[in-house]
Amino acid sequence: MFTRLSLSLLAGLFASQLMAADCPPLLQGDLQQLRSKEQINLCERFAGKPLVVVNTASHCGFAPQFKGLEALYQRYKEQGLEVLGVPSNDFKQEASDSSETATVCYINYGVTFAMSEPQPVRGSDAIPLFRELAAQSSAPRWNFYKYVVGRDGKVIASFSSMTKPDDPELIKAVEQAIASQP
Question: What total number of domains does the chain contain?
Answer without folding.
Answer: 1
